[in-house]
Specification:
The complex is a heterotrimer of chains A (267), B (357) and C (318). Chain B is mostly helical and 357 residues long. Chain B has 14 helices and four strands. The model of chain C has no long low-confidence stretch (mean pLDDT 80). The chains are: A alpha/beta (267), B mainly alpha (357), C mainly alpha (318).
Chain lengths: 267, 357, 318
Amino acid sequence: MSVASGAPAGDSGETLLSIEHVSLSFGGVRAIRDVSFDIRRGEIRAIIGPNGAGKTSMLNVINGFYHPQAGRITYKGATRRRMRPHQAAAQGIARTFQNVALFKGMTTLDNILAGRTLRMRKSFFWQLWRYGPALTEEIEHRKYCEEIIDFLEIERIRKEPVGRLPYGLQKRVELGRALAMQPELLLLDEPMAGMNLEEKEDMSRFILDVNAEFGTTIALIEHDIGVVMDLSDRIVVLDYGNKIADDRPDEVRRDQAVIDAYLGVVH
Amino acid sequence: MFYREAGQFKTTYQADMSIFPILQDRIGLALIIVAALALPFFAGDFVIASVMVPFLILSLAAIGLNILTGYTGLVSLGTGAFMGVGAYACYKLSTTFPGINILVWIVASGFVSCAVGVFFGLPSLRIKGFYLAVATLAAQFFLQWCFVRIPWLYNYNPSGAIEVPSRTLFGIHVTGASATPTTRYYIALAIVISVTWVVSNLVHGRVGRSFMAVRDMDIAAQLIGIRLLRTKLLAFAVSSFITGIAGAMMVFLWLGAAEPDAFNINQSFILLFMVIIGGLGSLVGSFLGAALIYILPIVIRATPESFGLTIGAATVEHLTYVITGALIIFFLIVEPLGLARLWQIGKQKLRVWPFPY
Amino acid sequence: MTLLYSIFVDPFVQMAGAPDLLVQTLWEGLVGGVLYALIALGFVLIFKASGVFNFAQGIMMVFAALTLVGLHEKGVPAFVALGLTIVVMFLLAVAVERVILRPLVNQPDIILFMATFGLTYVLIGLGELVFGGNPKNMITSELLLPSGSLDFKVLGGLVSLQKIDIAAAIIASLMVAVLAVFFQKTRIGRALRAVADDHQAALSVGISLDQIWVIVWFTAGLVALATGIMWGARSNVSFALEIVALKALPVLILGGLTSVPGAIVGGLIIGIGEKLGEFYWGPLIGGGVESWLAYFIALAVLLVRPQGLFGEKIIERI
């Protein structure tokens, strides 16, 4: 399997993404209030907090779906306030959604192939004739997708229309589609939502493998605290749009503000 | 048991990704093409001229609409007008430069229709769903108005209609009064087969996936790097190109003459029905839908006659409306994916026959 | 230069030069707008209550008018015919609910939208089969609706208002007022709004979807009947009206699909805009612009505000 960058798993020290004083409001609702944090290349960063804290909005801002009213985002050294989603994709940011955003009318294989769209260079003219350069390119990309399918252990369902797959498998396919983009930064929005223990273990293993083998930096929203503590290198905690903690798992676990807002105590 | 794929293993990705991976499908397709080529030897002029040629042309138009509405999810009520653009473009080009091969002009008129289609597709970035359908109505009514109010389009003919000039290809008459139904049929068949092949290539590759991605969830499509406006405009372009050619063929190879009314909103509806009943997002469905909707009035007229009763032409038309409308509702309830899906289910049953599942 | 002049200056000069014509044109536009608004109202009713974009609203108007006139032609007295037509519209509502809405209850909106296309065709065919396609006259006098005109000497010229138009405007305003109150104040109105938002949620609170839908489609049918009578009185009753009814779509776009006041404002804007455009600017490009001007106005609005003037902003939660 090819590795996207030679960076080892874990913290490499170099900042990949930096969020500075970002604020986001919808009408009267202030979803994010003056939040700053960074994500280092090669790490697994978790964003946690109670519902409505602004976690998904944060990912949407990174992605370019929402444009913050204040603050700036520096990604790979380039600073911007506004970025369109397809530009984010071209820059190497991929993402999965809370409610699975797969193309329900297509098969698993087609969905994952769709993730290769940006890398399919053969022009419209060649697409008209298929046989020849377009088909050669498509076969190459098929090979890469098959490696992803192999990695995620979804060979059985590659020709199934995704609309008919169980929820857990859909989430895996969505991860596959994101991986097909060979992203440098992978944003995962509650990848384990609705999964049982076994599925969660599988998904955790995949996330760790992606980080270890491909060197992909991962930002992860997740509610299962056990998973978060095990997987992540550093954690950001949001509450009502404010950042209340930003540290390594052990420190966050002991932070009083976090316990009050979110974790609670064992009774 | 005739349709089983047992024993057909694919050892290369290329084989797996071919458009008709199952051998029986390929044989079936070959048989259909052979039958289509041989048809004029068995069927009379009436069947060729009044059934097969229109069927081919309407199927092509349905494919055009299917690209836009079935594959990309952009509902269009302006198909009739785009066919008209192709027809009038071909007429003007052919009458202005009579020496040039008519096939060249038929293809060129596709490009004219393509340009118009892209222009009217521009709003699709901001507007979605029903609203876009109403925007396409703007195209429909405006273009129809142009066909009537711009006399240059019909060469200042006092009747307001366009009449097809006689054109030859390698010495054989292909359009106009002297062209035989058989000649026209073969030309239409050639065009339809080639265009369908090219469209099939498109939808099975990157372009087709982009279209379907935009249809299924345009937000997610943006995320993987698909540029919405470009993709939607491409859909309008390809769709209008095809419907434009179909429009040119309709006048030049079928009707022989046309008035602006031939491209009215009713035509747009009929094509939409063909696509819905045939199956949104299916090439096979476009053919099936066109066959059903076009043949239906013929069957309605013929059935009582075979029992000895006669019905007036007007009544046939009214009954057709009722039955077409009822069929739409029926299909949407029973099988929203249309005849194409029923066909797939049928094939699936064939696979396991004589077992039930 | 002359081109710019003829587009931007001349029409206004014309308007100022013959103010009685301007008033006449404005009045015609107003009446047309009111009638468009009524058709749009039928759409809004059904959309608000069932989430279905009923493409067949226009043809329901024609069908209702045809039934009324057709029955009268066969010798049924006017008001009896009216009563029978109301019954027919009720039966139609029941049939639609049974045959179309119930089987398609959880399908995506686009499927229901296309089902109403099918309904349109069925009604066209049925109407033609039963009543024939020849243009007919509306039975205005038998229904005790006024005819003739009121002429005013105004602004140096003559303005002629058809009494039937005045009646139409009054009746339309009454209907709109009644419907607005119905939606906002009554229990059934609330239930209708709940159903429009979420079928399943409404079901789970015990709202009977079937009844609601029959009520809604019947009400829309009544609105269609009233509109059909008014419109048929101004021009003949024939299937050409269906094309006119399609104009209600731009009205809906302007007004937003869920707003009753929006339908009215949209109707007036389209009606007046269309008439002014046709009369003062139309001759510049050969006339007949009425067939498409409304759609372009709607298109222009949509480009600026994709949800229409009054519609709710579509926020997609990702």
